[in-house]
Write a structure and sequence with these properties.
Helices cover 34% and strands 15% of the residues of chain A. Chain A is of the alpha/beta class and 311 residues long. Chain A is globular and about 55 Å long. The chains are: A alpha/beta (311), B alpha+beta (440).
């Protein structure tokens, strides 16, 4: 402690400093992948984490334009507004946008649904692997965070997947210092998560600081929902009200935006980023605990899906 | 009770001192299987309000289902199926929590077999290490091993967390004996700062809050320590090192939106150490050519000065030939340009070293072919004895080695610079990371 400088640091300063460090770490990782990989792609869903990742890619490349394409795996169950946002962002950053849809995989027969309205979220893995093979991507940059889920807490920033897309938790490369091993054998590819070390709150603070545009779904708006236990299920064409349901219109927002059939809003009056930060800082539920209809199937639902190629 | 001789912080701890210059601290926790590491992490997360209600409900339910009287906090951290099945921790996991003062990243290294490589992995990015000791067992081989590994990886800030003090009735003599034994060991390793804290992870005593009921202890709680300990930012005072990650060139048509479309050439990289100002004269290695800094930017933001950890774009006044893997330094304190590395190395792979095999060495942004010219000795991490001239290396071995490089690397000693003093070894056949080294 002898070297301690006796300058009091206020909280805002401390927060700014930690965002600087997280940003610098992400820019470093992005640049390593850009420099070392043959054909990287950025997975862009239009959600907040991928919005942050896209912004970081912009900063990592600057003053060049983003030198890799965006890939969206469209389940066909996205909110129109998110799709419009996705297209707008691709245009703003002059990125080539590849869209591959689960619908096509269904048509080809590589995805077989158990029933027409089944959540397509897990099937994204199949379509993603098909797209990786089609384009020959050797690295997929994704916006996953370790704080989202216990299985993710164990995943490396640079994670090797085989041709089946499998994640093998027992056989991960050790990751030391900031020396990322980006080498992959032909047919394998990397999943790279530059914002691994960010939390949900960090993401919101960064969105505020950098003034990053998001789909309006993230902010409080009136929406028709029904209550299923402690989860609010939005009333949509894919998740219609059932007999006996009471449909309510409440002020809510999405903490995570994905497939319509598996993301639920939370009751909230937070209409701007500052309000959301205040709410997130006090929130008692995890992002997924409150909002996902699909992670609850078992304690290890996420790990299972990742082993099957999910990101 | 007197403050132990080596531990100075206990008497000096000043709770009004705020962390200097860092909202982020990375630390690791190490201890053997039953020393209560998971409980301690669970406690820290819970007492700082970082366990969400749904997480708590889930682990409460599982604990109850298993017929446990108290919450099993390891359920919070052991997330994988095989871990829960076997009740073990497989690999390093990273956890996050925050207080109003600071953000924390915990590198949670399992204490089981494979300990050495996991500990080395987690320690490589840590500012501080918490070494957990069971008050009933005292300093064990495991404690010494972890202290040695923390030392090897250059962690100067150590916490000796004497856990389960409630089970020895908070006897000061028990605590003092452990502290003395630990200090005797660690002083022999080199310069460290040790903060010893008597605590009970299970009850939360001295974890997030200080226990007034223990009159003989005047030091900080674990959380108070973590909020106040300086993060490793000494890199700013070290000579400038900027490994070039990427050459950025704007020609017609590839300018980012908002960026000027005129021709531009610059160098992207993160400062490993030191400071860089506009107008500074820098040298480029390995060629040694010199130039002045014309511009420093992060996206559209121009900087007058960049310091360690900043991910910048550097523009120079004169056109010189620079590629990825080169390094910028200040003009008078260059890195060593070497074609032989002498290093302490931890073998991480289940595949033993091929003593005559070719490997790749990745150091900063440069990767070169290499082979092992000499294995000088192996360190017994339990006794710290040197075993002379090993023939090969197997997983968890710590060795002093000499590597012959096909092309030069731009290095510093690890004790002087963690970034330019470290490297990994990649097996060109499996493409796995098989070893980690610190340069002597």
């Amino acid at each position: 402690m002898n070297e301690q400088v006796n300058t009091p640091v206020n909280q805002t300063h401390a927060a700014a400093d930690h965002l600087d460090l997280l940003e610098a770490e992400a820019l470093f990782i992005l640049r390593e992948v850009i420099a070392e990989c043959r054909h990287p792609v950025l997975l862009f869903s239009g959600g907040k984490d991928s919005a942050v990742l896209l912004h970081l890619a912009y900063k990592a490349f600057h003053p060049e334009r983003i030198g890799c394409a965006l890939l969206h795996i469209d389940t066909g169950h996205n909110y129109d507004e998110v799709i419009a946002y996705r297209d707008r962002m691709a245009e703003r950053y002059a990125c080539q946008l590849h869209v591959r849809s689960v619908e096509d995989s269904i048509r080809k027969g590589s995805v077989r649904l158990r029933h027409a309205l089944e959540s397509r979220n897990a099937y994204q893995s199949v379509t993603l692997m098909e797209a990786i093979a089609e384009f020959g991507f050797d690295a997929c940059l994704g916006g996953a965070r370790r704080d989202e889920e216990k299985a993710r807490a164990k995943e490396r920033i640079v994670s090797v997947r085989d041709e089946f897309g499998q994640w093998e938790p027992k056989n991960q490369r050790p990751e030391l210092w900031s020396l990322y091993n980006t080498r992959v054998a032909l047919g394998d590819h990397l999943r790279v998560f530059p914002i691994s070390n960010w939390t949900e709150l960090d993401v919101w603070q960064y969105i505020q600081r950098e003034d990053i545009e998001l789909p309006a779904l993230y902010f409080a708006h009136p929406r028709q929902v029904v209550r299923r236990g402690d989860i609010l299920v939005p009333v949509t064409h894919l998740t219609p009200a059932q007999a006996g349901d009471t449909v309510e219109t409440i002020s809510c927002r999405f903490r995570t935006v994905g497939d319509i059939s598996c993301t639920a809003p939370v009751a909230s009056s937070a209409g701007n980023v500052a309000d959301i930060i205040a709410e997130t800082a006090q929130c008692l539920l995890t992002e997924r605990g409150a909002t996902r209809l699909d992670d609850r199937a078992s304690d290890a639902a996420m790990e299972q899906r990742k082993k099957e190629g999910y990101f | 009770m007197n403050a132990p001789s080596y531990v100075t912080l206990e008497s000096q701890f000043d709770e009004t001192v705020q962390p200097a210059n860092s909202g982020l601290l990375r630390f690791i926790t190490a201890g053997s299987v039953d020393d209560g590491k998971s409980t301690l992490i669970g406690r820290l997360l819970y007492d700082t309000g970082n366990v969400a209600a749904d997480q708590l409900a889930a682990i409460q339910a599982t604990s109850q289902k298993r017929g446990l009287a108290a919450i099993d906090w390891s359920l919070l951290t052991d997330g994988l199926i095989a871990e829960r099945e076997q009740g073990i921790t497989i690999d390093v996991a990273y956890r996050y929590f925050a207080t109003s003062r600071r953000k924390f990243i915990i590198g949670d290294a399992p204490g089981h077999e494979q300990y050495t490589r996991n500990m080395v992995t987690a320690a490589s990015s840590a500012d501080s290490a918490i070494l957990l000791v069971d008050a009933r067992k005292g300093v064990t081989t495991q404690t010494r091993r972890h202290a040695y590994l923390a030392h090897l990886l250059g962690i100067r800030e150590l916490v000796l967390a004497v856990n389960k003090m409630d089970l020895v009735d908070w006897q000061p003599a028990v605590y003092q004996d452990i502290v003395d034994a630990f200090n005797a060991f660690v002083s022999a390793l080199g310069r460290h700062h040790v903060q010893a804290i008597p605590l009970s992870a299970l009850n939360g005593t001295n974890v997030a809050t200080r226990a007034e009921a223990i009159p003989w202890y005047h030091g900080p709680s674990l959380l108070e320590y973590l909020e106040a300990v300086p993060a490793r930012r000494d890199a700013e005072r070290a000579p400038l090192r900027l490994p070039v990650q990427r050459v950025v060139r704007v020609m017609l048509g590839n300018a980012a939106n908002g960026a000027s479309d005129t021709e531009f050439r610059g160098y992207q990289g993160t400062l490993a150490s030191g400071r860089l100002h506009i107008g500074d004269e820098i040298a480029v290695w390995p060629t040694g050519q010199r130039a002045r800094v014309k511009g420093l930017t992060v996206a559209e933001q121009s900087l007058a000065m960049a310091s360690a950890d900043h991910a910048v774009v550097v523009a120079l006044e004169s056109e010189i030939d620079i590629s990825r893997g080169d390094m910028l330094s200040n003009a008078i304190q260059p890195p060593r340009v070497v074609k032989t590395l002498t290093a302490d190395m931890c073998w991480l792979s289940e595949q033993p070293m091929q003593a005559r095999g070719k490997y790749l060495v990745k150091h900063t942004t440069r990767t070169v072919n290499a082979f092992f010219e000499e294995l000088s000795y192996r360190v017994d991490v339990n006794t710290l004895d040197h075993q002379a001239t090993p023939e090969t290396a197997v997983m968890n071995d710590i060795l002093r080695v000499k590597l012959k490089l096909q092309q030069p690397l731009l290095v510093d000693a690890y004790v002087d610079n963690r970034t330019t003093g470290s490297f990994i070894v990649i097996d060109p056949a499996s493409l796995h990371t098989v070893a980690a080294g610190v340069i002597i």
